[in-house]
Please model this.
Amino acid sequence: MSKSLLIVDDSATMRKIVMRTIRMSGLDFETTEEAGNGVEALEKLSAGPVDIMLCDVNMPEMSGTELVKEVRKLSDCENTKIIMVSTESSQELIDGVIADGANGFITKPFTPEKFQEKLSPFMN
Amino acid sequence: MIEQVCLNELLLESAKEIFETMVFMDLAECTEPAENAEDCALLGTITFKGALEGCLAFCCSVPCARAIAMNMLGIDTSEEIAEEDVCDAIGEICNMVMGSVKKRLAESAGNLEVSIPSVVSGRQLKNNMGEGSHKTTVKINIEDEYVTELSLLYHENSN
Ligand SMILES: [Mg+2]
Model:
């Protein structure tokens, strides 16, 4: 089944790198959208939910951890899988954001294999 | 608390980890004397605080920064790359190398809080942290073509 993807990161360059890595991983999305911060991501999601959201943690305006809480308040997005992508990898942060409703965590630096491993369970 | 010698090794290992995984470029410690100062024209920094407080800096030439960014983005050498992407890529390098340093220092320094990286033109990393601060710099050769510098400037917080 074809899936939709939303990449949220304040760095446009990082969004491109994530997209490149996803292409290299062989994962296929029907649509890919981008947002530069949490506020922009919520705007995109209010227009329609996505299947998978990849989310940076450190962002100005609204951090990734705040964004997860906001997305989980949207009944439309209850099936949206949220995977965090960050260089921050403390267990405390990971446990906290999973408790808030994220579905997975990818630490930077990442490989195409890592995306394959973490995203493929949500691709069916 | 932290030996300078170990820090050198730690910086190098952290940079290697990032460059091998995300940049696909080979790194080696450079033992040759310093290059022309103008060669180091872009400076990426990221600050941290905790038991250790200071900043990590990565300094390289503009052609080197472009090569790094193009590799990270998978852009062909015949294509153009925006200056913004070049700066962003160097910022991201700092962010990821700092992440790796932080992980490796966790046992001796505990959790360090890390800022958002910034990238500027110019090479001088001024030590304005005063007495009791240390600076470790490792010269890194990238792909046998570019000489870059990775520095850690810090002081220890006793409380
Ligand atoms: Mg960010």
About this structure: Residues 134 and 154 of chain B are 5 Å apart (CA to CA). Helices of chain B lie at 4-23, 62-73, 83-109. The pocket of magnesium ion is lined by residues A 9-11, 56, 58-59 (CB under 6 Å). The domain at 4-156 of chain B is CATH 3.40.1550.10 (Chemotaxis protein chec).
